[in-house]
Amino acid sequence: MIEIWLNPACSKCRTAVSELDAAGADYTVRRYLEEPPTVADLEDVLARLGVEPWHIARTADAKGLGLELPERSEAERQNWIQLLADNPKLIQRPIITAADGTTVVGRDAESLAKVIAAG
Question: Hey, which residues does 92 pair with through a beta bridge?
């Protein structure tokens, strides 16, 4: 089963849901602003994506939230993960994970196709 972390107000999330529906995919929705990911959830997603936490951060939104971002470094990695867990609005969306572990930030057609195929 596919899991999609989404914000219903996000157009990219709505597009991803439409694509999943059109493909007949079996999926569950996690409204990550209402049910924020834990540090462990984020570490798992980062490992699956093969990226660092700042790669899935909506850094431009930090200022509007009154947040100062840590340095992008290994020494600050855990601080980034905690920041994302404490402020889920900073997380890129949608993040979609297929049953086989394939995980994407589903902001483009290619990423959506990849996770749907793995579904």
Answer: none
Domain ranges for the chain, please list them.
1-32+93-119, 38-92
Q: Tell me the CA distances in angstroms from 66 to 15, 33, 59, 63, 96, one per residue in order.
A: 29, 17, 12, 5, 28
Token pair, residue 95, equals 């993040």
H or E element at residue 103: strand 103-105
- Which pair of tokens denotes residue 10? 């996000």
Please state which CATH number belongs to domain 1-32+93-119.
3.40.30.10
pLDDT, tens digit (0-9, with 9 covering 90-100), for 5-37: 999 999 999 999 999 999 999 999 999 999 999
| Alpha carbons 9 and 23: distance in angstroms, whole number | 22
Say if residues 30 and 95 touch (Cβ distance below 8 Å): no
- Does the predicted model carry a pTM greater than 0.70? yes
